[in-house]
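Reading a protein record of the kind used here takes only a little practice. An example makes this concrete, so a full record is given next.
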Amino acid sequence: MTYQVFDTTLRDGAQREGISYSVVDKLAVARLLDEFGVGFIEGGWPGAMPKDTEFFRRARTELELRHAVLVAFGATRKAGVAVDADPQLRALLDAETSAVCLVAKSDVRHVERALRTTPAENLAMVRDSVAHLVAQGRRAFLDCEHFFDGFRHDPAYTSAVVETALAAGAEVVVMCDTNGGMLPSQVTAAIGALTERLGISPARLGIHTQNDTGCAVANTIAAVEAGVRHFQGTANGYGERPGNADIFAVVANLQLKLGLPVLPDGCLEQMVRVSHAIAEIANIAPDTHQAYVGAAAFAHKAGLHASAIKVDPLLYNHVDPAVVGNDMRILVTEMAGRASIELKSRELGLDLADHPDAAARVTKRVKEMEAGGWSFEAADASFELLVRAELPGMSAPRPFALESYRVQVEHREDGAVVSEATVKLRVRGERVIATAEGNGPINALDEALRVALLRHYPELRGFELADYKVRILEGSHGTGAITRVLVETTDSGGGDWTTVGVHPNVVEASWHALVDALTYGVSRAPAEV
Protein backbone atom coordinates (compact mmCIF):
# COMPACT_ATOMS: atom_id res chain seq x y z
CA MET A 1 0.00 0.00 0.00
CA THR A 2 1.54 3.30 -1.12
CA TYR A 3 1.38 6.47 0.95
CA GLN A 4 2.14 9.90 -0.45
CA VAL A 5 4.15 12.10 1.92
CA PHE A 6 3.59 15.57 0.48
CA ASP A 7 5.72 18.33 1.99
CA THR A 8 4.75 21.97 1.58
CA THR A 9 7.44 23.63 3.72
CA LEU A 10 8.61 25.79 0.81
CA ARG A 11 5.13 27.03 -0.02
CA ASP A 12 2.65 26.91 2.86
CA GLY A 13 5.37 26.69 5.52
CA ALA A 14 7.02 29.83 4.13
CA GLN A 15 3.92 31.80 5.13
CA ARG A 16 5.02 31.66 8.77
CA GLU A 17 5.70 35.09 10.22
CA GLY A 18 9.44 35.78 10.20
CA ILE A 19 10.41 33.30 7.49
CA SER A 20 11.82 34.57 4.20
CA TYR A 21 13.70 31.97 2.19
CA SER A 22 16.13 32.98 -0.51
CA VAL A 23 16.34 30.82 -3.63
CA VAL A 24 19.53 29.27 -2.25
CA ASP A 25 17.69 28.55 1.00
CA LYS A 26 14.86 26.87 -0.86
CA LEU A 27 17.26 24.65 -2.78
CA ALA A 28 18.98 23.66 0.48
CA VAL A 29 15.66 22.86 2.20
CA ALA A 30 14.55 20.78 -0.78
CA ARG A 31 17.72 18.69 -0.56
CA LEU A 32 17.16 18.10 3.14
CA LEU A 33 13.55 17.07 2.63
CA ASP A 34 14.64 14.65 -0.07
CA GLU A 35 17.18 13.14 2.33
CA PHE A 36 14.35 12.68 4.81
CA GLY A 37 12.53 10.68 2.15
CA VAL A 38 9.35 12.66 1.45
CA GLY A 39 7.60 11.72 -1.78
CA PHE A 40 6.64 15.22 -2.95
CA ILE A 41 8.13 18.66 -2.37
CA GLU A 42 5.87 21.60 -3.17
CA GLY A 43 8.37 24.23 -4.20
CA GLY A 44 6.23 27.34 -4.48
CA TRP A 45 4.03 29.35 -6.83
CA PRO A 46 5.79 30.07 -10.15
CA GLY A 47 4.41 33.02 -12.04
CA ALA A 48 2.93 34.62 -8.93
CA MET A 49 6.23 34.79 -7.00
CA PRO A 50 9.41 35.76 -8.93
CA LYS A 51 11.56 34.01 -6.32
CA ASP A 52 9.61 30.79 -6.87
CA THR A 53 9.90 31.10 -10.63
CA GLU A 54 13.67 31.37 -10.21
CA PHE A 55 13.68 28.40 -7.83
CA PHE A 56 12.04 26.10 -10.37
CA ARG A 57 14.38 27.31 -13.11
CA ARG A 58 17.46 26.54 -11.01
CA ALA A 59 16.02 23.33 -9.62
CA ARG A 60 16.03 21.79 -13.09
CA THR A 61 19.83 21.75 -13.13
CA GLU A 62 20.82 22.06 -9.46
CA LEU A 63 18.55 19.56 -7.70
CA GLU A 64 19.19 15.85 -7.97
CA LEU A 65 16.37 14.32 -5.96
CA ARG A 66 16.54 10.64 -5.02
CA HIS A 67 13.17 10.21 -3.32
CA ALA A 68 10.99 13.23 -4.00
CA VAL A 69 9.03 14.62 -6.94
CA LEU A 70 9.13 18.41 -7.24
CA VAL A 71 5.66 20.00 -7.42
CA ALA A 72 4.63 23.43 -8.71
CA PHE A 73 1.67 25.10 -7.01
CA GLY A 74 -0.89 27.47 -8.50
CA ALA A 75 -4.54 28.29 -8.95
CA THR A 76 -7.13 27.10 -11.42
CA ARG A 77 -7.81 29.29 -14.44
CA LYS A 78 -9.46 32.62 -13.84
CA ALA A 79 -13.17 32.98 -14.33
CA GLY A 80 -14.04 33.65 -17.95
CA VAL A 81 -10.51 32.92 -19.22
CA ALA A 82 -9.70 29.93 -21.43
CA VAL A 83 -7.14 27.52 -20.03
CA ASP A 84 -4.75 27.93 -22.95
CA ALA A 85 -4.83 31.72 -22.48
CA ASP A 86 -4.42 31.75 -18.70
CA PRO A 87 -0.93 33.07 -17.76
CA GLN A 88 -0.96 31.32 -14.40
CA LEU A 89 -1.47 27.88 -15.95
CA ARG A 90 1.19 28.71 -18.51
CA ALA A 91 3.64 29.50 -15.69
CA LEU A 92 2.86 26.16 -14.04
CA LEU A 93 3.68 24.31 -17.25
CA ASP A 94 6.81 26.41 -17.75
CA ALA A 95 8.07 25.27 -14.34
CA GLU A 96 8.54 21.87 -16.03
CA THR A 97 7.68 19.81 -12.97
CA SER A 98 6.12 16.41 -13.53
CA ALA A 99 3.44 17.17 -10.92
CA VAL A 100 1.31 20.24 -10.26
CA CYS A 101 -0.94 21.04 -7.31
CA LEU A 102 -3.84 23.38 -8.03
CA VAL A 103 -5.88 25.19 -5.42
CA ALA A 104 -9.61 25.71 -5.91
CA LYS A 105 -12.48 27.08 -3.89
CA SER A 106 -14.70 24.31 -2.52
CA ASP A 107 -16.90 26.39 -0.21
CA VAL A 108 -19.70 27.96 -2.23
CA ARG A 109 -19.60 31.05 0.00
CA HIS A 110 -16.01 31.69 -1.03
CA VAL A 111 -16.90 31.07 -4.66
CA GLU A 112 -19.60 33.73 -4.62
CA ARG A 113 -18.04 36.26 -2.23
CA ALA A 114 -14.26 35.94 -2.77
CA LEU A 115 -14.04 34.77 -6.40
CA ARG A 116 -17.23 36.65 -7.31
CA THR A 117 -18.25 34.07 -9.82
CA THR A 118 -21.00 31.48 -10.10
CA PRO A 119 -20.86 27.97 -8.60
CA ALA A 120 -21.16 26.51 -12.12
CA GLU A 121 -18.23 28.56 -13.43
CA ASN A 122 -16.07 27.49 -10.49
CA LEU A 123 -16.75 23.84 -11.34
CA ALA A 124 -15.82 24.57 -14.95
CA MET A 125 -12.58 26.24 -13.79
CA VAL A 126 -11.68 23.10 -11.84
CA ARG A 127 -12.59 20.75 -14.68
CA ASP A 128 -10.80 22.72 -17.39
CA SER A 129 -7.63 23.35 -15.38
CA VAL A 130 -7.15 19.77 -14.21
CA ALA A 131 -7.92 18.34 -17.64
CA HIS A 132 -5.50 20.78 -19.29
CA LEU A 133 -2.61 19.79 -17.01
CA VAL A 134 -3.30 16.08 -17.45
CA ALA A 135 -3.44 16.55 -21.23
CA GLN A 136 0.01 18.14 -21.01
CA GLY A 137 1.36 15.04 -19.26
CA ARG A 138 1.34 16.38 -15.71
CA ARG A 139 0.27 14.58 -12.55
CA ALA A 140 -2.46 16.79 -11.11
CA PHE A 141 -3.43 17.26 -7.46
CA LEU A 142 -6.22 19.56 -6.35
CA ASP A 143 -6.28 21.32 -2.98
CA CYS A 144 -9.91 21.97 -2.02
CA GLU A 145 -9.55 25.17 -0.05
CA HIS A 146 -11.96 25.47 2.92
CA PHE A 147 -13.17 21.92 2.25
CA PHE A 148 -14.41 21.11 5.75
CA ASP A 149 -16.18 24.43 6.30
CA GLY A 150 -17.73 24.18 2.84
CA PHE A 151 -18.79 20.57 3.37
CA ARG A 152 -20.57 21.54 6.58
CA HIS A 153 -22.33 24.46 4.91
CA ASP A 154 -23.30 22.85 1.59
CA PRO A 155 -22.13 19.23 1.28
CA ALA A 156 -23.65 18.84 -2.17
CA TYR A 157 -21.59 21.63 -3.71
CA THR A 158 -18.33 20.77 -2.00
CA SER A 159 -18.80 17.14 -3.08
CA ALA A 160 -19.38 18.35 -6.63
CA VAL A 161 -15.96 20.09 -6.61
CA VAL A 162 -14.28 16.85 -5.54
CA GLU A 163 -16.20 14.79 -8.08
CA THR A 164 -15.45 17.24 -10.90
CA ALA A 165 -11.71 17.20 -10.20
CA LEU A 166 -11.53 13.40 -10.06
CA ALA A 167 -13.53 13.06 -13.26
CA ALA A 168 -11.16 15.50 -15.00
CA GLY A 169 -8.16 13.31 -14.09
CA ALA A 170 -6.90 14.56 -10.71
CA GLU A 171 -4.72 11.92 -9.07
CA VAL A 172 -5.75 13.02 -5.58
CA VAL A 173 -8.17 15.62 -4.26
CA VAL A 174 -6.95 17.12 -1.00
CA MET A 175 -9.35 18.10 1.76
CA CYS A 176 -7.99 21.30 3.31
CA ASP A 177 -8.82 22.48 6.81
CA THR A 178 -7.87 25.98 5.76
CA ASN A 179 -9.13 27.72 8.89
CA GLY A 180 -7.72 25.00 11.13
CA GLY A 181 -10.91 24.60 13.14
CA MET A 182 -11.50 20.86 12.91
CA LEU A 183 -11.22 18.07 15.48
CA PRO A 184 -10.23 14.46 14.68
CA SER A 185 -13.75 13.04 15.05
CA GLN A 186 -15.09 15.70 12.68
CA VAL A 187 -12.44 14.89 10.09
CA THR A 188 -13.28 11.19 10.25
CA ALA A 189 -17.02 11.88 9.96
CA ALA A 190 -16.55 14.16 6.94
CA ILE A 191 -14.42 11.59 5.10
CA GLY A 192 -17.02 8.90 5.74
CA ALA A 193 -19.86 11.11 4.55
CA LEU A 194 -17.99 12.24 1.42
CA THR A 195 -16.90 8.78 0.30
CA GLU A 196 -20.40 7.41 0.86
CA ARG A 197 -21.99 10.27 -1.07
CA LEU A 198 -19.63 9.92 -4.06
CA GLY A 199 -19.06 6.17 -3.87
CA ILE A 200 -15.27 6.59 -3.99
CA SER A 201 -12.37 5.12 -2.09
CA PRO A 202 -10.78 7.38 0.55
CA ALA A 203 -7.49 6.49 -1.14
CA ARG A 204 -8.46 9.06 -3.80
CA LEU A 205 -8.40 11.76 -1.13
CA GLY A 206 -5.68 13.74 0.61
CA ILE A 207 -5.54 15.75 3.84
CA HIS A 208 -4.04 19.18 4.58
CA THR A 209 -4.54 20.58 8.08
CA GLN A 210 -3.77 23.82 9.88
CA ASN A 211 -3.06 23.86 13.62
CA ASP A 212 -5.47 26.50 14.93
CA THR A 213 -7.06 24.01 17.35
CA GLY A 214 -3.72 22.34 18.15
CA CYS A 215 -5.03 19.24 16.36
CA ALA A 216 -3.26 19.40 12.98
CA VAL A 217 -1.18 16.26 13.57
CA ALA A 218 -4.10 14.41 15.19
CA ASN A 219 -6.44 15.41 12.35
CA THR A 220 -3.94 14.15 9.79
CA ILE A 221 -3.54 10.83 11.61
CA ALA A 222 -7.34 10.49 11.83
CA ALA A 223 -7.64 11.02 8.08
CA VAL A 224 -5.05 8.34 7.34
CA GLU A 225 -6.76 5.94 9.73
CA ALA A 226 -9.97 6.64 7.78
CA GLY A 227 -8.29 5.47 4.58
CA VAL A 228 -6.60 8.58 3.15
CA ARG A 229 -3.25 7.79 1.53
CA HIS A 230 -2.00 11.31 0.70
CA PHE A 231 -1.11 13.65 3.57
CA GLN A 232 0.49 17.09 3.57
CA GLY A 233 2.54 18.87 6.19
CA THR A 234 5.51 21.13 6.80
CA ALA A 235 8.87 20.76 8.51
CA ASN A 236 8.52 21.59 12.22
CA GLY A 237 4.89 22.58 11.61
CA TYR A 238 5.87 25.92 10.05
CA GLY A 239 3.03 27.86 8.52
CA GLU A 240 0.61 30.74 8.82
CA ARG A 241 -0.94 31.52 12.21
CA PRO A 242 -0.21 28.56 14.57
CA GLY A 243 1.14 26.62 11.61
CA ASN A 244 0.52 23.38 9.73
CA ALA A 245 0.70 19.71 10.62
CA ASP A 246 4.30 18.91 11.59
CA ILE A 247 5.43 16.46 8.93
CA PHE A 248 7.98 14.94 11.31
CA ALA A 249 5.41 14.12 14.01
CA VAL A 250 2.94 12.81 11.41
CA VAL A 251 5.48 10.54 9.75
CA ALA A 252 6.89 9.26 13.04
CA ASN A 253 3.42 8.48 14.38
CA LEU A 254 2.32 6.70 11.23
CA GLN A 255 5.49 4.68 10.92
CA LEU A 256 6.25 3.92 14.57
CA LYS A 257 2.76 3.77 16.08
CA LEU A 258 0.70 2.40 13.20
CA GLY A 259 3.43 0.48 11.40
CA LEU A 260 2.72 2.12 8.05
CA PRO A 261 5.55 2.19 5.47
CA VAL A 262 5.53 5.91 4.72
CA LEU A 263 9.29 6.55 4.29
CA PRO A 264 12.04 4.68 2.44
CA ASP A 265 14.28 2.49 4.57
CA GLY A 266 16.97 4.37 6.49
CA CYS A 267 15.27 7.78 6.28
CA LEU A 268 13.45 8.00 9.60
CA GLU A 269 16.67 8.28 11.60
CA GLN A 270 17.51 11.46 9.63
CA MET A 271 14.57 13.25 11.26
CA VAL A 272 16.35 15.21 14.01
CA ARG A 273 19.22 16.24 11.74
CA VAL A 274 16.87 17.43 8.99
CA SER A 275 14.53 19.19 11.42
CA HIS A 276 17.33 21.18 13.03
CA ALA A 277 19.04 21.97 9.73
CA ILE A 278 15.81 23.40 8.29
CA ALA A 279 15.29 25.44 11.47
CA GLU A 280 18.79 26.85 11.03
CA ILE A 281 18.04 27.85 7.43
CA ALA A 282 14.74 29.42 8.51
CA ASN A 283 16.65 31.30 11.25
CA ILE A 284 14.29 29.93 13.89
CA ALA A 285 15.62 28.33 17.06
CA PRO A 286 14.62 24.66 17.17
CA ASP A 287 11.72 23.99 19.53
CA THR A 288 13.33 22.08 22.38
CA HIS A 289 9.97 20.56 23.35
CA GLN A 290 8.88 19.51 19.86
CA ALA A 291 7.66 15.91 19.66
CA TYR A 292 10.27 13.37 18.56
CA VAL A 293 12.92 15.88 17.40
CA GLY A 294 13.18 18.35 20.30
CA ALA A 295 16.18 18.27 22.60
CA ALA A 296 13.76 17.69 25.48
CA ALA A 297 11.65 15.07 23.68
CA PHE A 298 13.38 12.27 25.58
CA ALA A 299 14.68 14.25 28.56
CA HIS A 300 13.73 13.00 32.02
CA LYS A 301 13.72 15.12 35.13
CA ALA A 302 11.91 13.32 37.95
CA GLY A 303 13.90 10.91 40.06
CA LEU A 304 11.07 8.36 39.87
CA HIS A 305 11.42 8.27 36.09
CA ALA A 306 15.16 7.87 36.30
CA SER A 307 14.88 4.93 38.69
CA ALA A 308 12.77 3.06 36.14
CA ILE A 309 14.94 4.13 33.22
CA LYS A 310 17.96 2.71 35.00
CA VAL A 311 16.26 -0.70 34.80
CA ASP A 312 14.87 -0.33 31.27
CA PRO A 313 14.92 2.94 29.23
CA LEU A 314 11.71 2.00 27.39
CA LEU A 315 9.78 2.04 30.66
CA TYR A 316 9.58 5.83 30.32
CA ASN A 317 10.37 6.38 26.61
CA HIS A 318 7.49 5.78 24.24
CA VAL A 319 9.99 4.81 21.50
CA ASP A 320 13.73 4.32 21.25
CA PRO A 321 15.03 7.88 20.61
CA ALA A 322 17.66 6.54 18.21
CA VAL A 323 15.05 5.53 15.63
CA VAL A 324 14.43 9.21 14.86
CA GLY A 325 18.05 10.29 15.40
CA ASN A 326 17.52 11.65 18.91
CA ASP A 327 19.05 10.81 22.31
CA MET A 328 17.71 10.26 25.78
CA ARG A 329 18.89 12.79 28.36
CA ILE A 330 18.69 12.83 32.12
CA LEU A 331 18.15 16.28 33.66
CA VAL A 332 19.78 17.00 36.97
CA THR A 333 17.54 19.16 39.17
CA GLU A 334 16.25 19.38 42.71
CA MET A 335 13.81 16.64 41.69
CA ALA A 336 16.69 14.30 40.91
CA GLY A 337 17.28 11.22 42.97
CA ARG A 338 20.36 9.08 43.10
CA ALA A 339 19.32 7.16 39.99
CA SER A 340 19.13 10.41 38.01
CA ILE A 341 22.59 11.42 39.19
CA GLU A 342 24.08 8.04 38.27
CA LEU A 343 22.44 7.99 34.83
CA LYS A 344 23.47 11.56 34.05
CA SER A 345 27.03 10.89 35.17
CA ARG A 346 27.18 7.79 32.99
CA GLU A 347 25.90 9.88 30.07
CA LEU A 348 28.91 12.16 30.62
CA GLY A 349 31.33 9.23 30.79
CA LEU A 350 31.64 9.13 34.59
CA ASP A 351 30.53 5.99 36.42
CA LEU A 352 29.22 6.56 39.95
CA ALA A 353 27.78 3.05 40.30
CA ASP A 354 30.95 1.78 41.96
CA HIS A 355 31.22 4.84 44.21
CA PRO A 356 28.02 4.91 46.31
CA ASP A 357 29.41 7.43 48.79
CA ALA A 358 30.35 9.82 45.97
CA ALA A 359 26.91 9.39 44.39
CA ALA A 360 25.27 10.24 47.71
CA ARG A 361 27.46 13.33 48.14
CA VAL A 362 26.74 14.55 44.60
CA THR A 363 23.00 14.02 45.06
CA LYS A 364 23.02 15.94 48.34
CA ARG A 365 25.14 18.72 46.88
CA VAL A 366 22.90 19.12 43.82
CA LYS A 367 19.77 19.37 45.93
CA GLU A 368 21.39 21.97 48.21
CA MET A 369 22.66 24.06 45.32
CA GLU A 370 19.38 23.90 43.40
CA ALA A 371 17.57 25.08 46.52
CA GLY A 372 19.80 28.17 46.32
CA GLY A 373 18.93 28.86 42.69
CA TRP A 374 21.49 26.79 40.80
CA SER A 375 20.27 24.70 37.88
CA PHE A 376 22.22 22.02 36.05
CA GLU A 377 19.54 21.15 33.46
CA ALA A 378 21.34 23.07 30.74
CA ALA A 379 24.80 23.18 32.30
CA ASP A 380 26.33 19.76 31.76
CA ALA A 381 29.90 21.06 32.08
CA SER A 382 29.33 22.51 35.54
CA PHE A 383 27.65 19.29 36.62
CA GLU A 384 30.53 17.22 35.28
CA LEU A 385 33.02 19.32 37.27
CA LEU A 386 30.92 18.79 40.37
CA VAL A 387 30.90 15.01 39.87
CA ARG A 388 34.62 14.86 39.12
CA ALA A 389 35.34 16.66 42.38
CA GLU A 390 33.77 13.76 44.27
CA LEU A 391 35.50 10.91 42.37
CA PRO A 392 38.97 9.77 43.44
CA GLY A 393 41.63 11.04 41.05
CA MET A 394 39.07 12.63 38.69
CA SER A 395 38.92 16.20 39.99
CA ALA A 396 39.63 18.82 37.35
CA PRO A 397 42.24 21.18 38.84
CA ARG A 398 41.41 24.86 38.66
CA PRO A 399 43.75 26.55 36.18
CA PHE A 400 44.31 29.43 38.60
CA ALA A 401 43.60 30.76 42.06
CA LEU A 402 41.83 34.10 42.35
CA GLU A 403 43.41 36.90 44.35
CA SER A 404 40.89 39.52 43.24
CA TYR A 405 39.07 40.98 40.26
CA ARG A 406 37.68 44.44 39.58
CA VAL A 407 35.22 45.56 36.88
CA GLN A 408 34.33 49.15 36.10
CA VAL A 409 32.03 50.80 33.61
CA GLU A 410 32.80 54.34 32.49
CA HIS A 411 30.25 56.57 30.76
CA ARG A 412 32.28 59.28 29.06
CA GLU A 413 31.31 62.81 28.15
CA ASP A 414 31.04 61.94 24.46
CA GLY A 415 28.47 59.24 25.22
CA ALA A 416 30.87 56.31 24.85
CA VAL A 417 30.47 53.53 27.42
CA VAL A 418 33.67 51.61 28.16
CA SER A 419 33.96 48.48 30.32
CA GLU A 420 37.29 47.51 31.82
CA ALA A 421 38.25 44.52 33.99
CA THR A 422 41.39 43.72 35.96
CA VAL A 423 42.15 40.27 37.37
CA LYS A 424 44.86 39.27 39.85
CA LEU A 425 45.56 35.53 39.78
CA ARG A 426 47.99 32.85 40.90
CA VAL A 427 48.78 30.69 37.89
CA ARG A 428 51.13 27.73 38.37
CA GLY A 429 52.98 29.50 41.16
CA GLU A 430 53.16 32.82 39.35
CA ARG A 431 51.26 36.00 40.25
CA VAL A 432 49.60 37.42 37.14
CA ILE A 433 47.81 40.75 36.72
CA ALA A 434 45.92 41.47 33.51
CA THR A 435 43.57 44.21 32.32
CA ALA A 436 41.29 44.23 29.28
CA GLU A 437 38.40 46.20 27.83
CA GLY A 438 35.29 44.59 26.46
CA ASN A 439 31.80 45.07 25.12
CA GLY A 440 30.21 45.20 28.54
CA PRO A 441 31.56 44.21 31.96
CA ILE A 442 31.23 40.44 31.47
CA ASN A 443 33.00 40.47 28.13
CA ALA A 444 35.77 42.61 29.67
CA LEU A 445 36.14 40.13 32.53
CA ASP A 446 36.29 37.22 30.08
CA GLU A 447 38.95 39.01 28.02
CA ALA A 448 41.04 39.84 31.07
CA LEU A 449 40.97 36.19 32.18
CA ARG A 450 42.16 35.06 28.76
CA VAL A 451 44.99 37.61 28.73
CA ALA A 452 46.12 36.42 32.14
CA LEU A 453 45.99 32.72 31.30
CA LEU A 454 47.00 32.55 27.65
CA ARG A 455 50.73 32.07 28.22
CA HIS A 456 50.12 29.09 30.46
CA TYR A 457 47.12 27.72 28.53
CA PRO A 458 47.57 28.50 24.81
CA GLU A 459 44.51 26.39 23.95
CA LEU A 460 42.41 29.34 25.15
CA ARG A 461 43.02 30.95 21.75
CA GLY A 462 40.44 28.55 20.33
CA PHE A 463 37.80 29.26 23.01
CA GLU A 464 34.93 31.61 22.29
CA LEU A 465 32.07 32.80 24.48
CA ALA A 466 29.20 31.85 22.19
CA ASP A 467 26.16 32.70 24.29
CA TYR A 468 25.34 34.41 27.57
CA LYS A 469 21.96 34.18 29.27
CA VAL A 470 20.78 35.91 32.45
CA ARG A 471 17.68 35.02 34.41
CA ILE A 472 16.20 36.66 37.50
CA LEU A 473 15.01 33.80 39.70
CA GLU A 474 11.40 33.48 40.78
CA GLY A 475 10.69 35.00 44.14
CA SER A 476 13.43 37.61 43.73
CA HIS A 477 12.79 41.26 43.07
CA GLY A 478 14.47 44.27 41.56
CA THR A 479 18.17 44.99 41.33
CA GLY A 480 18.92 42.94 44.45
CA ALA A 481 17.46 39.73 43.02
CA ILE A 482 19.24 36.39 42.82
CA THR A 483 20.64 36.02 39.31
CA ARG A 484 21.42 32.87 37.37
CA VAL A 485 23.85 33.06 34.46
CA LEU A 486 24.41 30.47 31.75
CA VAL A 487 27.54 30.70 29.60
CA GLU A 488 27.98 28.67 26.43
CA THR A 489 31.57 28.26 25.22
CA THR A 490 32.85 26.77 21.97
CA ASP A 491 36.28 25.76 20.76
CA SER A 492 37.96 25.65 17.38
CA GLY A 493 37.46 21.88 17.21
CA GLY A 494 33.68 22.23 17.10
CA GLY A 495 33.08 21.38 20.75
CA ASP A 496 30.71 23.31 22.99
CA TRP A 497 29.84 23.28 26.68
CA THR A 498 27.60 25.21 29.05
CA THR A 499 28.29 26.33 32.60
CA VAL A 500 26.22 28.03 35.28
CA GLY A 501 26.76 30.60 38.01
CA VAL A 502 24.38 32.00 40.65
CA HIS A 503 24.74 35.02 42.95
CA PRO A 504 22.85 38.19 43.94
CA ASN A 505 25.52 40.13 41.98
CA VAL A 506 25.29 39.45 38.24
CA VAL A 507 29.04 39.96 37.77
CA GLU A 508 29.87 37.41 40.47
CA ALA A 509 27.35 34.96 39.00
CA SER A 510 29.01 35.46 35.63
CA TRP A 511 32.43 34.94 37.22
CA HIS A 512 31.41 31.51 38.54
CA ALA A 513 30.15 30.49 35.09
CA LEU A 514 33.28 31.82 33.35
CA VAL A 515 35.65 30.02 35.75
CA ASP A 516 33.79 26.75 35.23
CA ALA A 517 33.87 27.28 31.46
CA LEU A 518 37.65 27.77 31.37
CA THR A 519 38.31 24.99 33.89
CA TYR A 520 36.23 22.53 31.89
CA GLY A 521 37.79 23.61 28.60
CA VAL A 522 41.43 23.27 29.65
CA SER A 523 40.74 19.95 31.40
CA ARG A 524 39.49 18.30 28.22
CA ALA A 525 41.69 15.90 26.28
CA PRO A 526 44.16 17.71 23.97
CA ALA A 527 42.59 16.05 20.92
CA GLU A 528 39.30 17.73 21.70
CA VAL A 529 40.70 21.24 22.11
